[in-house]
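## tool: complex_structure
## caller: assistant
## args:
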Amino acid sequence: MKVSVIGATGYGGLELIRLLHQHPFVDIASLHSFSTQSATLADFYPHLKNIVSSPLEQINPAEIINTSETVFLATPSGISKDIAAPYVEAGLNVIDLSGDFRLKNGQVYEKWYGKSAASADYLAKAVYGLAEFQQDKTATFIANPGCYATATLLGLAPLVKNQLIDPTSIIVDGKSGISGAGKAPTSSTHFTETNENMSLYKMNSHQHIPEIMQQLTSWDKNIPAIQFSTSLIPVTRGIFTTIYVKPKEPMTKKALHTLYETTYENSPFVRIQTEDTYPTIKQVKASNYCDIGLAYNEKTNTITIVSVIDNLVKGAAGQAIQNMNFIANFAESDGLNFIPVYP
Amino acid sequence: MKVSVIGATGYGGLELIRLLHQHPFVDIASLHSFSTQSATLADFYPHLKNIVSSPLEQINPAEIINTSETVFLATPSGISKDIAAPYVEAGLNVIDLSGDFRLKNGQVYEKWYGKSAASADYLAKAVYGLAEFQQDKTATFIANPGCYATATLLGLAPLVKNQLIDPTSIIVDGKSGISGAGKAPTSSTHFTETNENMSLYKMNSHQHIPEIMQQLTSWDKNIPAIQFSTSLIPVTRGIFTTIYVKPKEPMTKKALHTLYETTYENSPFVRIQTEDTYPTIKQVKASNYCDIGLAYNEKTNTITIVSVIDNLVKGAAGQAIQNMNFIANFAESDGLNFIPVYP
Amino acid sequence: MKVSVIGATGYGGLELIRLLHQHPFVDIASLHSFSTQSATLADFYPHLKNIVSSPLEQINPAEIINTSETVFLATPSGISKDIAAPYVEAGLNVIDLSGDFRLKNGQVYEKWYGKSAASADYLAKAVYGLAEFQQDKTATFIANPGCYATATLLGLAPLVKNQLIDPTSIIVDGKSGISGAGKAPTSSTHFTETNENMSLYKMNSHQHIPEIMQQLTSWDKNIPAIQFSTSLIPVTRGIFTTIYVKPKEPMTKKALHTLYETTYENSPFVRIQTEDTYPTIKQVKASNYCDIGLAYNEKTNTITIVSVIDNLVKGAAGQAIQNMNFIANFAESDGLNFIPVYP
Amino acid sequence: MKVSVIGATGYGGLELIRLLHQHPFVDIASLHSFSTQSATLADFYPHLKNIVSSPLEQINPAEIINTSETVFLATPSGISKDIAAPYVEAGLNVIDLSGDFRLKNGQVYEKWYGKSAASADYLAKAVYGLAEFQQDKTATFIANPGCYATATLLGLAPLVKNQLIDPTSIIVDGKSGISGAGKAPTSSTHFTETNENMSLYKMNSHQHIPEIMQQLTSWDKNIPAIQFSTSLIPVTRGIFTTIYVKPKEPMTKKALHTLYETTYENSPFVRIQTEDTYPTIKQVKASNYCDIGLAYNEKTNTITIVSVIDNLVKGAAGQAIQNMNFIANFAESDGLNFIPVYP
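## result:
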């Protein structure tokens, strides 16, 4: 399969290139960037030297349509919505890694993103690509989920889909590595400000909240809201979510594990930890796995769910390739079944 | 004031020495260690070279009683209870940094610590030294609080003391730097296992849970239990607690801030952040401050409290010196009013 | 090709498994450990869950000889020499990652390693596997080079082989990530002791010195000694060597680059940086590349060579697979031509 | 003593404030910034909340002259030269932390800094304040040394002043923490680019080279040049220099140590490590110490000197206060004799 990547110089684009390079059935047809052209990507990213020789090209839709079957938009929110149309209209597979097509309601998008929304028919057409639960295998226009949303939704799905929890009880304490803030240098990504530090940001206002709510309420319409926090921890890659919910009825630890094991028995990238074991960021580093640990506290009738991913892989580029594999009828794990980088 | 430190070679003991060295009214009379003697501390800790020349001495209670007015026990839980008696009986000021005298109920200690408890009369005699709320200024035998307990209790006190929250709603998501695990090398303190990582430990079983419960229920006896999690983050020093509670009645952000400002108006080491601002670990590094940020989410009727400390200072040695200042009738901030180390 | 890994639970063994898993022409026949048996590796290393299901088996040479064509010894120095014989005698390909067979002179080994040496005929038989310069393609018993030695020798080879430098002028300032110290927790691998720190170790006594000297003197017998330092930096993976040498004759920057480009024109894993550009550890992370940057200072007549590798890949498991590829007549880069993990 | 700080919002200025705050004989009269005014410093730096309440004021020389005896210029190179005059002319003590007055030769400044130099008479008037070797105790206009220069010069002084080394043999391999690059976010201070990384910068072109040469040649005019490298390591604070020199005559380890011990016997902030012991960054963190370790390799006739400092203290603000102490006739260590922050 011939693919193009638009937005090749951001962290999401670079990770796509890393993963696509080792996919057995993919050829990278072209790489594109708004910010830079007329150079090879390796001129800016020395890790690619002698491996990826493709030039960074201008974005010429006609040419891309001519040479590629699949286009990945690794462009920021606010950009994807303006450039997606030609590829969608031409019938290419389009997988967008931004937030532009995730929310079905344009007004909600405008409120949380502070930007004008994509057109209503495009919002209707795009399919939210939470890979483990995406049903419409004929969909070719995919809104790839956000990193926090992926970790949170995979952590909550078994309980919420079966409507086993008090719908008002969901509290998500999410922590993210610094790469989640992107490549642009800011004071909140400065080493001396972030190393040996931890900080909370976007209190009650993170744009993944409506995305999570949209999916959760599709599973249990009684959920009125979630409490959702986001913090920065001094790691490069990784999302670590600690989720607290109250079951409607007390649950045994065993029942809880069985529920999760069963839900994900056909999902190669979700690994339920054995009882009394909790995942760490490092065990999924640079891989497409979402590892989930579970606890139940009888005293407080609280289930704790720990769900970890690599934000650049399962939270972005890896899940995008999972979605591409569905479209292309490849095996779900083709190109993604490698071992996490440890230590 | 002449002071001795027993357990001088652990992180708590070393931090006591660092802070006592710059206290204007204190002389270190002697330093003691179980593991090492007949050498100076600087032989093992080169940062002390040419500054602290005291030898590490054997623990001779008669001699210590003779030369010191105050003894700090920076010994691990399970040791302090066996060595405290002579100093208490001799009427010295005794400040214990371990968990041995914090819990009034010996059975609770034995359950959570897995060790035999101190005698009932010593448990009764020891005063829990949460400095901002310690009332008994004549107390000379102090159980210095745990690090998580300090951050959590200072974060919850204004709401709980005024019985403003649903007593079943408390969820504490605590994160600790690696120095909290002590100086002994283990696989969970190994750099390659902890850097670029985050992990959860002691799920629902951390020994600070009963300590927090004992204090909270003294403020509001209706609190049946708390949900309390502890994670390791790749920083050397610091506790970052994110606390979620539901107020009995909706609160304005302004009322919330006023409540906290008022509660701590005479507490030099608790700094309430301005509205919409949340503290980071780095802003209290190497200092005795506890910085607290506050948010209220109308949609979920949830208050989020962020409370951060340096675990070795406000969570151990600094608070111990605050307690010593009370006993000695020094100003509360004597020796502690320095600026945090930033960046 | 069927392969076995002995010493599967150390960092070297784990990295071999990670790389062999994605090698297109290899099957892992069995995994072995001294310390642990009767369990799967994934029980101890959750990153392998659902990917590597092999049990950890006892070391039964007859069985290994029966099922495998190649044996990797990822055992520590002092162990490999005691266990290698059956596989060598049986004619298996044996690739040893320890220092036991690198030094031709057993007395030198005993001096630097403080252990008794392997037998003289085994020392004679083993071929030093510095992949880019290993000539004997029929060799099946390989002593895989050390991490510092690899970075240093690849950095020096073009100048030394052509005898272009003052043989008394070599100074190597080497820095290593903490994984080079292995998996065992010690005070020098403790997070709180290593993070935000840098320290020098084994001053003038690192065991890679004789290994480097042996190879350098095979290229230029006039080299009497090298000055070689080793420091620990707070990174998990990586060797960063800064090498200073004085050319016999002043060299232009261009001539220097041409020399290196020419030397390595057929070496897929050595990447000479463009002029005035110097490699970073991150650009080779988790990959088999050795990236080299070059400078010449006219004022001091000094060439500076910066040579970086991932110590666990090019400095251990990756180079071992390069050597296996030679033996098996695979392409040199088979299973190794993936993109480094960045960022 | 009343002091003012101009450039209070940079890392150097903030560190000055931290140290001046705990100096027993100093009052901060005013704080000034170019970038920000009409706010308190604590509005931007929450670590200062409730401790430093001074406003950030405009730079009004007449007022500063009226209220202060000493002015610290913590302004960047290129700024100090333009603003120093009024304070110097008014006879205030002026201590400049930038590079503007360090080089006696304006042309050399212009070549290495790429900016126009201060006037010749000001360059002549300013005294280079390497505290341990500054002789002119009547000097009131001080050019405070650079961080690399301080670590390098203190490491080399005993050998160079006694002309014991081959003047062509000096090689300095310097490593710096990220705070050395200042507070402005750039791609080379971005956490994801610097953590788990190491990189070399300003190859053979660092602006501290002429500063070091100027001082070294004042001690031994035969030194023609030095080889000097600078690398970034992922730590917040710290300079770690590894220096290689060849003695004219072979030296015993004992003679080497005696030389250094003797040279620094009256220098409270230089601590010579015991034989076979080498300093780490952490043992001087947040302190004014320069710790030095020494080795001699007979095989290569090379002395290795390891010299470490905290770049923001001994490499900037701390040494500035040492210089202020000289001027004011305070004890050299007043306000600086605290214990480094460890761990």
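## assistant note: Chain B has two domains: 2-125, 148-311. The mean pLDDT of chain B is 97. Handing back to user.
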